[in-house]
Design brief:
This protein has helices spanning about 15-25, 25-40, 75-85, 100-110, 150-165, 175-185, 230-245, 260-265, and strands at about 10, 50-55, 55-65, 65-70, 95-100, 120-130, 145, 190-195, 200-210, 215-220, 250-255, 270-280. By secondary structure, it is an alpha+beta fold. This is N-acetyltransferase domain-containing protein.
Length: about 280
């Protein structure tokens, strides 16, 4: 088709298979974008992604809906894609993804974005295909999927985690929209919790599922319980159940300065599969 000869263009329904093929080259790094595509993110009227084409073939693209996330990009595509990324500056809250790609795009576009609140350029991408029980790790039986009627128990834990991690609350005014996002994860069986004494003391979410891969996010342990050796058993159980319930390849990324979290993930069998970077506005 004539439109595919243009080096940069908006991606749509006809590009879904090619975009997913690009994501599948590195599913650990690209599961976030792949899951959004499978959820209809390239449907009619979408402006979520622009692709870089060479000889009529999709070689790379940038997802730029709320977050700027590069897929398969490199020096040859950063410059051509930069114009589209700059146009997204008013609706983008962050850049995130593989470090080299994020920093390459940032070099081309950063001058038009607000000054970052944080640049986290060393975030180990961790992954495993081995159930922790096979490695002899104890599984804490208290971890289970949250129930829909427990959404208001999960909300304070989710809010505390988000605020501590990002630096501001996840909502202003009414919590209705944020609560609904939590409700949807619970409905999909993608929030795991430990509830004791009528409150959540641990939680973890499966934020993305695609390409036989899933990404854990929002891991949180109540502050007064940290340092007691509970996290490894809880995480081992989350990984075990996630493999059984959602996908056999489990990933997450973590800040390099979070030494305790890194040790926990390594303890349950996760190993480094790459490096992410996140630039927060």
């Amino acid at each position: 088709m004539l439109r595919t000869r243009q080096p940069i263009r908006l991606l749509g329904v006809d590009d879904v298979d090619d975009a997913l093929d690009l994501c599948a080259r590195d599913p650990a790094a690209n599961v976030f974008v792949a899951s959004r595509i499978l959820d209809g993110g390239l449907g009619p009227g979408s402006t979520a992604a622009h692709g870089y084409f060479a000889d009529g073939r999709l070689e790379a693209f940038v997802w730029s809906y709320a977050n700027v996330v590069p897929v398969g990009t490199g020096p040859e595509s950063w410059g051509p894609l930069a114009g589209q990324v700059r146009r997204m500056r008013r609706r983008s809250a962050s850049f995130l993804g593989p470090r080299e790609e994020v920093l390459g795009l940032w070099q081309e576009t950063g001058s038009v974005f607000p000054r970052p609140r944080a640049m986290r350029t060393e975030q180990p991408l961790m992954a495993t295909r081995t159930p922790p029980s096979r490695l002899g790790h104890a599984i804490d039986a208290r971890v289970r999927p949250a129930h829909l009627h427990e959404v208001d128990l999960v909300l304070p834990a989710a809010e505390h985690m988000f605020t501590h991690e990002i630096g501001y609350r996840p909502y202003t005014g009414s919590s209705a929209f944020y609560r609904d996002s939590i409700w949807r994860l619970i409905r999909q069986g993608r929030t795991y919790v430990v509830i004791e004494g009528g409150r959540v003391i641990f939680k973890a979410d499966i934020g993305s599922v695609a390409l036989d891969t899933c990404q854990i996010q929002g891991v949180w342990l109540s502050p007064e319980l940290r340092g007691r050796g509970l996290a490894a058993g809880f995480m081992a159980s989350v990984v075990e159940q996630t493999m059984a319930d959602h996908a056999p390849f489990v990933t997450l990324y973590v800040n390099d300065y979070n030494v305790a979290a890194l040790a926990t993930y390594e303890r349950v069998g996760m190993r480094r599969a790459g490096t992410f970077a996140t630039i927060l506005f």
